[in-house]
From TrEMBL:
It comes from Physocladia obscura. Residues 1-10 have a biased composition (Basic and acidic residues). GO terms for molecular function: ATP binding; ATP hydrolysis activity; P-type sodium:potassium-exchanging transporter activity. The keyword Ribonucleoprotein does not apply. NCBIfam families: ATPase_P-type. This is Cation-transporting P-type ATPase N-terminal domain-containing protein. It is found in: Cell membrane.
Amino acid sequence: MSNDKSEKSSDANITANETSETDNLPSFGLAVQRVSTFESIRKATFGGAAGVQDQQYLNPANEIIPVFRTMSLDVKQGTNKESRKKQARDFKSIDIHTLPVDKALAKLQAMSVQQGGLPDVVAVTRLKANGLNSITPPSDPYILKILSFLFGGFCFLMWCAAVIIFLSYYPLPQLDNQQPSVYNLALVILLLVVIIFQATFYAWQDWSSASVMKKINNLLASEAIVIRDGKSITIPASNVVVGDIIDLRLGAKVPADCIILECSPDFAVDRAVLTGESIPVSGTAKSTDASFMETKNVAFMGTLVVNGSGKGVVVFTGDNTVMGQIAVLSSKKRTERTLLQKEVDTFVAFVATIAFSCAAICMLVWKFVLLKQAEPQYDIIGMMANICGIIVAFVPEGLPISMSVTLTLIARRMAKQFVLVKNLTTIETLGAVSIICTDKTGTLTTNKMTLRDTGIGGLEILEVSEKAKNLFHKVAAQCCGAEFVDQLDKTTPIADRNISGDATDKAVLRFAESLGSVADVRNSFSKIYEIPFNSRNKWMMTIQQSSENADIFSSSVTLFAKGAPDVLYPKITSILNADGSISPFDKEAKANVNAMQLKWAGEGKRVLAFTYKKLKGDFSGVGSDVEEAAIKAVSELTLVGLGAIVDPPRAETKPTVEKCKEAHIRVAMVTGDFALTAVSIAREVSIVSVDHVDTVADMRSHTDLLSSGYKTSKSGKKTYLRSNIRQIEDAHRAIVVNGSEISDLTEDDWNKICCYRELVFARTSPEQKLRIVDEFKLREEIVAVTGDGVNDSPALKAASVGVAMGGGSEVAMESATLVLINNNFSSLLAGIESGRLCFDNIKKVIMYLIPCGTWSELWPVLLSIFVGIPLPLNTALDLVICCITDIFPSMSLIYEAPESTLMSRPPRNPKKDRLINIQMFAHVYLFIGLMECIFSFIMYFMYWNLEVGVGFNDLLFMYGQLDNNQVVFPNGVNITQGEFLNYSYAGNSVYFVALVMIQLFGNVYASRTRFNSVLQQNPFWGPTRNLYIPAATVLSISVAALFVYLPVLNNLFQTGPIPVMYWFIPIPMGFFILMMDELRKLAVRIMGPESIISKISW
């Protein structure tokens, strides 16, 4: 409470002290108020409903940093950490845009263009007070992140083992007056090293993701032109402050939310990044709507100036902008864990459950059975070491390392294919994608408009008279806001000349120039007023004064308009005929024009109508209501002709879609185009391949359609099941759904729609796109969604894999999980292939690690406890195998080339084809693991028999007799305790070497493929060669030899030197395991995927 009081007192003092000094100063300082709530921030900035309260202002000359804080403080500065906990701003209550310019500037303490904009010292002060003009990323809880690195995943089990072993070093020995074992201390240190090593890899993986995000952020625009101290200067966009005067030029991105102070009549802003509407919105210096979001005198952060120029005053920066508030809302939704993270979580839970259960059973048997023997083999310290061995045996310590390296390598490979991955674990999810919801423009198409067809009076332009063609040329030249950058360049082909303007106008300009010089036409007119194309009117118009006495426009004021035919038809009263005459726009004329329009729309072309009207009198004299008068003048038009614009598909789109179909991935087009146009484009790129495309009405009339199945729990909750993709493909039906129909679709409708193979969603809004994604996900589909605008961010975040375009908005990139740098749809398919390869290779690594690293390490401990044999493999060597000798071969499997069936089999169903499943455990434990375990025990007992003369039966049930000074075996062999330890340590080496050699010459080659033979996937030559495997073999054998023959390591890890033959005998055992797995794969290939052998195989 004392702090609050002191702050209030301080505020009061500042205000009182500065009052006398600021009475005569212009109002461009920040208000001295401390605010704590969002509503108070809004009131402090713009005043309450009753108006602005009397405020005192700081003198910038005194360089006092104001204590006012806004929501735009950047996390990098360590300020405003609670900003993302606030609610989103209610922009409906903002009314500053409705005020006269002078009052708006006064509220913002800004200075007009004539006054030279903000003084630089004030701008610097505001920047220090309010922070950078950037959208605050979600704060990173670094402490929690570090803890997750150290204790997450398998590290938790390793900590448990380390604690247990440490207790056996201290204080348990001291309590029993025993000397603590140095071996136990070394084992604790080794476990800690393994934990730190794994945590380092987790951190490296996280750092790799962060470095990718830095690359993504570098794609964003970073400069703005502002007027300060009477000068126009270029500054980083992040340094823009409230009250800055922004110079809005053609092609520039608006750096912050601002009110337009002045602009050219043709000023227009593309708000597609916010609204999804591709048609630019005209701008004006006059408020046109009470809503801050709807008015035309506001330019929003991230939008693009596509026509004209203007100047605006900044009202919101950073998180306070509309884009920033959308980002705040997006950040509140908890990011869903990826499939790979869920798979690893399941694996960790399973391993932990089995490990602790097995350890508990062993402790109970020891306590109530084995401890009651006359000479128990283990005391509490020995049993704790065994329990640690059990836990360590179950943990595949090399898996996190191999998984991190796998993901990083594949992420780098994807980066070379222009795919940047934000979260490395998303790579595997990408491989499981079963349906892609993609937009059309710029993804499937080139986003380069071409006016391909034109017609006059229902006839193609080549069939009309020169008079009609000449008139069309003049109208088209005027109905176009684009310009050639180099007006004097007449030698470069029209198609190659550089043009400024939007894509549609570029297409019209090229067409008009092909008919004659556009510059000559425009030079004969002078522009009076213009309204750019916008989503409300669906047309553009320009009013021109003719300066020559020629043709139909001689010395007259003429209105030229182009737009959507269905919107302009009611305003048309006459039509230009093919011979150049004008006639009424009667039923016959309408029928001819409609036939042409429908024909072109059916071919996937966007149709435009070109019109004109001669005005009476001097239009420039209408005064301030010029826009209203211009809109009213759009009537009684003469239709000159129609033009069909096409955005051609990318050359790679069709082959990519066909490859998706081969991979059993469905591609759904989700577009804002009309249904007829959308279906036509879908046919062109092979998204639709059937003759008849169902509508929603058609679908409802059929009773024999596939429908998504579900199961109902006892509580009545439905759980949907993914439909069989092969059944969907066999049915091979297509459907087009209009956005207007989506709200009326029932649950049964969606069940049927989600079972169509070919899907087109037309005239959709961002909300409807989100609904589509949610419906597919509800039915267990793994959905990838493409998008580039802020409006796409909810769908991108809701998708299983959000795919943002490289030229998209910052919010879209933040919401997405990967970014296509080149906006190329084929790059997404390459990413899917990498994702499938990632899953396969990680599974291969698990197949390699677990038989040795878990099963073959567990049984030595169990047999030692329950049947009383010497421990064949100690815990330290468990760790050596898992973290050293097995790491090199497992990492070589990361570099495996994809199998030939990788992109021809259906995407995996995460509910059925899991990373860790029953088939996998059966394979690693009962097949490969069992053989490895048996062969290793054979080698171990062979050593005791050949080197010591003690057979298998003589080693059984020795228990505590092995701790006697003189160890006597049932067959009469008598050795000292020291000799027994030497033989026991050498026996450890034999078991250890057997496992290493069997892994290297058997299991590593068996794990390379799931279905193909080793002869089909040759590791030594050809396209599938993997020379990392022989290199890893040499490394692993070399490391194993060090632990067997180096005296220092012998003492530390309780190993001993062994004869050379024990290195070679396991090799044919490895070949036998490989041969057995080859027979399994052969059976799978011969009997097919539906056979029993296939269903029980991994």
